From TrEMBL:
Residues 380-402 are annotated as: Disordered. Residues 1-24 form the signal peptide. It comes from the Bacteria. It holds the Pfam family SpoIIP. It comes from uncultured Sporomusa sp. This is Stage II sporulation protein P.
Length: 402
């Protein structure tokens, strides 16, 4: 009896581990799912395995939840229209930002390391038009997309740890294998953010787009809601899309919220799975898309996205940066803030003097009078005090002389 009970428990445990609730990853039947709304309109397409409870945020920020799945069609209801302005804060600039930064405690102004980690769970994923086939074990075209992402981030002053570890074969257990890679990156590099780069499996028009006159493949964010950090990662994804919509409208295709997914996002509060194009898009367009997406990351992580070069903060030569926080970056923010404040006081005082006297000549005369008379009078009491302090000893000396 006990042996039967043990066997049942083991089988149940295996089923729980291998069930979609444990993983909720891509479909492996070569097809894809279409999500339709209550009126039967197509609102989303994905190569991911769908189940009731999954949610999607479309490019125009309408959020749907899947209520049932029949074959390749998922039926969804509209939950809300998300106001992404609530997730985006315009970076403050100019004198006011300098002044506020000076007043804030040092702990509040402290930035992270400026480091980003990148890896690929599905190291075989490729782009058919460019790579010839959709899967190349251990050497997928996805690596070149990740490398382009790393290069673009570095050009913006970020430090990047790019892992080319292989996690084949392409199955649900690949996430268990890549978990060790993610853990090692987090432990060794202590990054501000970590990205797992993939590509989707849908028709080319789903991700195809044109931004700034160039053909690109769009980016999808994937959030696993199964783990303990699901809500935190969801808010993080909304912040990314809000910033992307400001910087490059239309670049982010949408966000997929997997009810049963985790994707190792429990390991880091800023962990994100990205899908850059589909296997039906060419790799060059995917590289262009991820290059534009790199523009968004410094804003999200609170870093400057100023171009590098010989005159840029932190630059040592024309080839690039010495890194964030380097001595070559010049004066600190606090020093610059003090300079701004002193400069404002001087300019303000000069303007007040000019307005109160009515002209440059009168202002000059008043300033001269202040320096020669009022400033001298300010110092005079000290001089008299020193003389008074010395009087007793002088009188004593005169008595001794007598």
């Amino acid at each position: 009896m006990k042996s039967r009970l043990g066997a049942v428990l083991i089988i149940g445990l295996l089923l729980a581990i291998l069930s979609p609730n444990g993983f909720a990853h891509e479909r492996n039947d070569g097809s894809y799912a279409t999500i339709v709304d209550e009126a039967g309109n197509n609102v989303y397409m994905t190569g991911r395995l769908l189940q009731p409870g999954d949610q999607v945020l479309t490019e125009n920020n309408r959020k749907y939840e899947v209520v049932r799945v029949e074959g390749d069609t998922a039926y969804a209801k509209l939950i809300e229209e998300v106001d992404l302005s609530l997730y985006y804060k315009e970076p403050e600039q100019g004198i006011l930002a300098q002044f506020k930064g000076f007043l804030e405690p040092a702990t509040a102004r402290a930035e992270g390391s400026g480091k980003v980690a990148i890896y690929h769970t599905h190291s075989d994923e490729s782009y058919v038009p460019t790579d010839g086939k959709e899967s190349i074990l251990g050497a997928g075209g996805i690596y070149k997309v990740g490398a382009r992402f790393a290069k673009e981030l570095e050009s913006k002053g970020m430090n990047v740890a790019f892992s080319e570890a292989k996690h084949d074969p392409h199955d649900d257990m690949a996430y268990e294998r890549s978990r060790r890679t993610a853990l090692n990156l987090i432990k060794k590099e202590q990054p501000d953010a970590i990205f797992d780069i993939h590509r989707d499996a849908v028709p080319p028009q789903v991700y195809g787009g044109k931004i700034d006159g160039q053909d690109i493949s769009k980016v999808q964010l994937v959030v696993g809601k199964y783990g303990p950090t699901g809500k935190q990662i969801e808010d993080y994804a909304l912040q990314i899309k809000a910033a992307s919509d400001k910087k490059h409208p239309g670049l982010v295709k949408g966000i997929f919220f997997a009810k049963g997914g985790d994707y190792n996002q429990d390991l880091h509060p800023r962990s994100m799975l990205l899908e850059v194009g589909a296997h039906t898009n060419d790799r060059e367009s995917a590289e262009k898309g991820i290059a534009l997406f790199a523009d968004v990351i410094p804003t999200i992580l609170g870093k400057s996205s100023a171009p590098t070069g010989p005159n840029a903060a932190g630059a040592t030569n024309a080839d690039g940066n010495a890194g964030l926080g380097s001595a070559a970056g010049g004066a600190s923010g606090a020093t610059k803030s003090i300079g701004w404040i002193l400069g404002l006081l001087i300019v303000g005082g000069a303007a007040f003097l000019l307005l109160s006297t009515g002209g440059l000549k009168e202002a000059g005369a008043k300033l001269k009078n202040f320096a020669s008379t009022e400033f001298a009078n300010f110092l005079a009491p000290k001089s008299r005090k020193r003389r008074n302090d010395n009087e007793p000893s002088e009188q004593a000396d005169r008595k001794d002389d007598k």
